[in-house]
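Quick illustration, no need to memorize.
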Amino acid sequence: MSTIADIERLALDLSERDRAILATHLLRTLPGILHDDDEGVGEAIRRDAEFDSNPGIGVSLEELDRRVQVRRKG
């Protein structure tokens, strides 16, 4: 029986297209870890209500862009 390392080595030798197909097939065999019965609508409603009650927790698009750039630079 092959070990995970052997399988990974073989998989990495595949073309990018074939690796993507393999990854898709493997992911489809796993249960949805973050699956919500309402597809996340409940969380979105909760966050919207939280923002309505405390608008100060939000950030502008410019601030979000700045934070993303800072994180990318490491």
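The CA atoms of residues 16 and 22 lie 10 Å apart.
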